[in-house]
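Entry: DNA polymerase IV
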Amino acid sequence: MFVSGAATILHADLDAFYASVEQRDDPALRGRPVIVGGGVVLAASYEAKAHGVRTAMSGGQARRLCPGAVVVPPRMDAYAAASKAVFALFRATTPLVEGLSIDEAFLDVDGLRRISGTPAGIAARLRRRVAEEVGLPITIGVARTKFLAKVASGVAKPDGLLVVPPDGELEFLRPLPVRRLWGVGPATAAKLAGYGVATVGQVADMPEAALVALLGPGAGRHLHALARNRDPRPVRTGVRRRSMGAQRALGRRHRTPEELDAMLVGLLDRLAGRLRGANRVCRTVTLRLRFGDYARATRSHTLPQATAETAVLLDAARVFLGAAAPLVAERGLTLIGVSLGSLHDDRAVQLALPFDAGLAADAAVDGVRGRFGSSAITRAVLLGRDPGIAVPTLPDEPPD
């Protein structure tokens, strides 16, 4: 086991992040239901969530559920600035910070007892500093493992602090619904419910072989370990992401094949630029689709040569989108997403021959955007179209 024997891992998660920033910056919104994003819900305040509003829901459905909600346009620059300020406080607390997203991180405070006090005291001070210096509510779970710290923060939301002592871990875990287990979505929960399994304790009581037979080797062993709070992963710093992705929620309106292709171009153009900006290349391109009946499809392709060239990545994704066209026409499409996986440092990959002019063109586009802004140059197919929203992400920086 790599983890400490004490509850020294913090999972810090900003509450309803985008909506909280809006309520912080506009006092008139405080205490009122707030929805960020009009066509599709990007975030909802807890006042709106109480009416059933959820992220990625269509704006029309959200307004029907919560007619009194205030709908505000997203301000990504404000969210990025708030995230940067909060992460500065994380790093002032401990050097061991593992960011998960712009509003969520693990912190390891083991060894800080003499200079900073108990993990619970450190967490309480961190919450107070985030509230006073950044003006945002944050929930923190404290536990011996990363998994349990994340579960604790989820249970403590909103604006709470929950410490799970080592001698009370299983007592805390067992009554929780199976959806609290990392990796259990609606499909897995439904499959377990079909066998009368509804709580973490019931999963823990199942033989590992039975879980493997039901869910497959990877998921079965994963859930068997988590239900018993076996999670040896330490908080890791300086680890670069293994994939990067972007998606776009489409609502319920019918989209033509040309519109969907333009959206795919926009997503890949943005992703490939991020890839090159981080000096990375990728080999795996994955297209994710969510249909009008909420069924999902995922298709992946591994390229023969790692690349960051926009045209190559786009061609791979277009093959999948074209193959899915009959299903899209039949069921409709509510979400399209792309992820780039099997990432490598571009200096560690040998360039393939013959050299293509595509990378030179990409570099020229990146240069123009870097100097004059992302809207200074765009692809012809995107002219006059809504480019979608570029969600801020954590920087993918190489380790020191």
